[in-house]
Fold this protein.
Amino acid sequence: MESSRSRKRTRQAHDCAAAPPPEREVVARGGASPPWREDDRDGHFVFDLGENLTRRYKILSKMGEGTFGRVLECWDRETHEYVAIKVVRSIRKYRDAAMIEIDVLNRLAENEKYRSLCVQIQRWFDYRNHICIVFEKLGPSLYDFLKRNRYQPFPVELVREFGRQLLESVAYMHELRLIHTDLKPENILLVSSEYIKVPSTKKNSQGEMHFKCLPKSSAIKLIDFGSTAFDNRNHNSIVSTRHYRAPEIILGLGWSFPCDIWSVGCILVELCSVRSLHTLYFSSTSLVIVFLTSHFLGGSIVSDTRESGTPSNDGEGFGTSTRGYDTESKLFSSEIF
């Protein structure tokens, strides 16, 4: 795994507006909240640790930051528990994406059986032009755990358990006709932060035994549904972070549920070997690999973009527009079980 490589992709314009959202709680200025501040030049919420995010939440730390905004660890004065609050940038496209994510999160929460598979939304509110989504507080992402562990791979048995849970969560999304489109180790969180130390097979230059950390619990949850696509609506031509992007996306052939399965496979290889399966840095190189693979499989790849000039978004006609690499022939998550 290359620690210095870019791990993020640029968010694309979303293909549809969110379903009508629940009643918003608009929090007024003043009260226990800090003085009104201008956002930074990128639209991020500006804060100091120890300040309040409305009267209910006290800001304790910044847990992370991404294209969408920032995640803050807060203390909930009403429930007396720690929560993670995603504070979205005050820019229209990110606010729209947040409303789509809220819609997806509410759909995922409808089935109690599967609530253990995906992060749970507790509530949301609009604060000073920032959509704030309150989540249960979970442990570190699989990527952060590997990074803190000096990129030592997880045991195969543990990766197998991660894979089982991940496929189960993806299968549930697919049943709801939802495609995550941005599966990667950063978006898979351990439920608990607790870990144990075990001897490693490696030794230092003095011959002393190394130790590595393993999570006490193998329970994981899927997060970040801001890029989730609805199967029956128009799709962006480019989705997924480069290292986990399926060949049909690179080739502009259109994509559907199988692109999530490709990402899952890349993730599991990476967790076992700590090397990205997709270590290629240029789409053109990736394209050559896919063409060569198709050639040795005895077929050829012909995109329907040759005739129409635009990639197919509806996923129809894969059987006639491609030979050798059939995007619809890949297994769905429910079949892999």
